[in-house]
């Protein structure tokens, strides 16, 4: 039952984040849709973790070079999601206000993804293989 | 008198030593990719080769190759106490790491050279591309150091 509550909360915050992103793109004052490409970063950010998790399944050793490489790449994707709208704003493709909205959406959505892993990642009752 | 923060134990609720490798990896990722985004910023702001010579990008590429080389061998292989010899053995690991660190230091020094020789001394109006090249290489260099030495390989011992 706790899983349902967490799922509802996480989907709510994900919707909030996507709303920020859409506001940054679609308001009449901004009306430039280039920041939508951060959706790609959202989509690929968990992939290194999944790959590393599948490659080595032993979790007893706390030093795990493969998993740390995955954290490194995930961090890179997150940093890229923040750098992309900043660069767009710096070359004046989008306005700074739109950039701020996209950054706020980034924060909310990445916290949502992190929350997903914290809530569902380690529990045995909910594994990704069941899907 | 009892304060309302008395029951907060910051050092106990999170075990930092278990998380050390994760934190080091994330910090290295932040440094490395921030460095690359800095040079992307400079490249889109100054697309002309008079402002930012395109050959200056080679510096960051060398730094990235050095990053990969440094982190491709583990500390255990250099000390010789790993289980397997690897393809080149301990000497090979040492030579490989030596070349990697030489490329890392070399790219850092070269970026300083670019900053001062290409921008500051010439009296160029826009020094920002030189600063971006320097910061890119500094971030990549320190990211490599954090990823190499921030992580421990023998937490279970």
UniProtKB/TrEMBL annotation, chain A:
Keywords: Endosome, Golgi apparatus, Membrane, Receptor, Transmembrane, Transmembrane helix. The gene is LEPROT. Belongs to the OB-RGRP/VPS55 family. PROSITE patterns: PROKAR_LIPOPROTEIN. The keyword Transmembrane applies. This is Leptin receptor gene-related protein. Pfam families: Vps55 (PF04133). It is found in: Endosome membrane; Golgi apparatus membrane. GO terms for biological process: late endosome to vacuole transport via multivesicular body sorting pathway; negative regulation of growth hormone receptor signaling pathway. It is a multi-pass membrane protein. It comes from Microcaecilia unicolor. The chain crosses the membrane at residues 6-25, 32-51, 71-89, 101-121. InterPro entries: Vps55/LEPROT. One of its GO terms (cellular component) is endosome membrane. The keyword Phosphoprotein does not apply.
TrEMBL record, chain B:
The keyword Transmembrane helix applies. Its main location: membrane. It is a multi-pass membrane protein. Keywords: Membrane, Transmembrane, Transmembrane helix. It comes from Microcaecilia unicolor. GO terms for cellular component: membrane. The gene is TMEM50A. InterPro entries: UPF0220. It comes from the Eukaryota. It is found in: Membrane. The lineage of its organism: Eukaryota, Metazoa, Chordata, Craniata, Vertebrata. The chain crosses the membrane at residues 21-40, 55-74, 95-121, 127-147. Belongs to the UPF0220 family. This is Transmembrane protein 50A. PANTHER family: SMALL MEMBRANE PROTEIN-RELATED (PTHR13180). The keyword Kinase does not apply.
């Amino acid at each position: 039952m706790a899983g349902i509550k967490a799922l509802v909360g996480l989907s709510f915050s994900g919707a909030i984040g996507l709303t920020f992103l859409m506001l940054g793109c679609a308001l009449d004052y901004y009306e430039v849709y280039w920041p939508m490409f951060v959706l790609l970063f959202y989509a690929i950010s968990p992939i290194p973790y999944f790959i590393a998790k599948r490659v080595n399944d032993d979790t007893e050793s706390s030093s795990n070079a493969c998993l740390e490489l995955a954290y490194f790449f995930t961090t890179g994707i997150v940093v890229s999601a923040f750098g992309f709208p900043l660069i767009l704003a710096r070359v004046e493709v989008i306005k700074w206000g739109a950039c701020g909205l996209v950054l706020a959406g980034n924060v909310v959505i990445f916290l949502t993804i992190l929350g997903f892993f914290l809530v569902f990642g380690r529990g045995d009752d909910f594994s990704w293989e069941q899907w | 008198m009892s304060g309302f923060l008395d029951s907060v134990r910051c050092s106990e609720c999170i075990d930092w030593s278990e998380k050390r490798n994760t934190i080091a990896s994330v910090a290295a990722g932040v440094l490395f990719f921030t460095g690359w985004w800095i040079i992307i910023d400079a490249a889109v702001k100054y697309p002309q080769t008079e402002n930012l010579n395109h050959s200056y990008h080679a510096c960051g590429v060398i730094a990235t190759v050095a990053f990969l080389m440094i982190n491709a061998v583990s500390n255990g292989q250099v000390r010789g106490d790993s289980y397997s010899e690897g393809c080149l053995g301990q000497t090979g690991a040492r030579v490989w790491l030596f070349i990697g660190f030489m490329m890392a230091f070399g790219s850092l020094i070269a970026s300083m050279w670019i900053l001062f020789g290409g921008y500051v001394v010439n009296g160029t109006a826009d020094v920002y591309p030189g600063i971006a090249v320097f910061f890119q290489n500094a971030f990549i260099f320190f990211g490599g150091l954090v990823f190499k030495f921030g992580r421990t390989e023998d937490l279970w011992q």
